[in-house]
Design brief:
seven-stranded mixed β-sheet, Quinone Oxidoreductase, Chain A, domain 1, Rossmann fold, six-stranded parallel β-sheet, alpha/beta, binds zinc ion
């Protein structure tokens, strides 16, 4: 084995996104090198580009990736070479209190947030400088070296584009309904924000047997997509006050309301649309420091619950294969999330569309 060159989109604060070549090292102890085949473009990548979320630089962004294990480091079973894998952006330590109690999404000792491997270094270099990989994934490159615990095997029949979406948006949204909120059949539900995550929440609610499932967005294109994946009602927030419309439709608010736009004003609306004794689930990720003005009397008097949701409260090693099986069985229309298949050079344009709230998920294919 030896290090290899890979085309990559490298982000620096000074120059923004630049297409170039990075040197990808051999996998070290407990690591695998993956040849990427697809990577979704997610809003959490945009948060870094805009400076909302401070991250180390230079860095290869992309954290919604799928590919094939090409080589393994010491201590990793060589039979894993050739496995089709989805990359988790929160590779768990498997030892901390959260991991051992089945809540890997909250792992305390993962190095993913620091964008370095377990030994504190990176596996990517460019012009002699260390390059970080976003959340230990860095899927806007042809190759990635990741912790073995962050490369989850899935069936070979699962298309790479769909696999990539399970790596972040689909798991976050579907998991919000199935794992975080554990929505019982017959519950009324509202989803505010119909990007990749919001549409995935709608799919999760459909699997749960929720009714009605009301989707709210400002784009008719996205609302149409929401109908295609299971929304029973849609509200265009440009044309109607979404709080009034949803409270009327549900006769007083929904049992479960999901915020998937990552905004403070919509979060406030979500709490208002939540029925007494109901639950507001905060799924969308806002700018760091965003504060929610809360009607405390409404929450207390009506016994409302507000819960946060990170990565769909998933244990990736269980949830990724489960979602793959549901997709392959025809029970999750994940293809509907994909708006366009693009190359690395088109990622900047995909971010522009995202800023304008236009288009469905763009997926880079290699
Ligand atoms: Zn994401
Ligand atoms: Zn852990």
């Amino acid at each position: 084995m030896s290090s290899i060159d890979a085309n990559a989109l490298v982000f620096t604060e000074a120059a923004g996104l630049e297409l170039g070549t990075v040197d990808v090292a051999d996998p070290a102890v407990g690591e695998v090198r993956v040849r990427l085949r697809a990577s979704g473009v997610c809003h959490s990548d945009l948060h870094v580009v805009t400076g909302d979320w401070k991250m180390p630089s230079p860095m290869v962004l992309g954290h919604e990736g799928a590919g094939v294990i090409e080589s393994v480091g010491p201590g990793v079973d060589p039979s894993r070479i050739g496995e089709r894998v989805i990359l988790s952006w929160f590779a768990p330590c498997l030892r901390c209190e959260y991991c051992v109690s089945g809540r890997q999404w909250a792992c305390r000792d993962t190095q993913a947030n620091k964008c370095v491997m377990a030994d504190g270094t990176t596996r990517l270099r460019q012009d002699g400088h260390a390059v970080h990989a976003y959340l230990n994934v860095g899927s806007f490159a042809e190759y990635a070296v990741v912790p073995e615990t962050g490369a989850i095997a899935v069936p070979d029949e699962l298309p790479f584009e769909v696999a990539a979406l399970i790596g972040c948006g689909a798991t976050t949204g579907i998991g919000a309904a199935l794992h975080t909120a554990q929505v019982p059949p017959g519950s009324s539900a509202i989803v505010v924000g119909c990007g990749g995550v919001g549409l995935s929440v709608v799919m999760g609610l459909a699997v749960s047997g929720a009714y009605p499932i009301i989707a709210v967005d400002m784009s008719d294109e996205k609302l149409e997509a929401a109908r295609a994946v299971g929304a029973t009602h849609v509200v265009n927030a440009r044309e109607h006050d979404p709080v009034d419309a949803c409270i009327e439709e549900t006769h007083g608010g929904a049992n479960f309301v999901f915020e998937a736009a990552g905004r403070v004003d919509t979060a406030e609306q979500c709490v208002a649309m939540t029925r007494a004794a109901g639950t507001t689930v905060l799924v969308g990720m806002p700018t760091r420091g965003a504060r929610l003005p809360l009607d405390v009397l409404d929450v207390a008097l009506n016994g409302k619950t507000i819960i946060g949701c990170s990565y769909g409260s998933a244990n990736a090693s269980l949830t990724f294969p489960m979602l793959a099986d549901l997709y392959l069985a025809g029970k999750l229309p994940l293809d509907e999330l994909i708006g366009s298949r693009i190359g690395l050079a088109d990622v900047s344009a995909a971010f522009d569309e995202m800023r304008q709230g236009k288009g469905l998920r763009a997926v880079v294919t290699y």
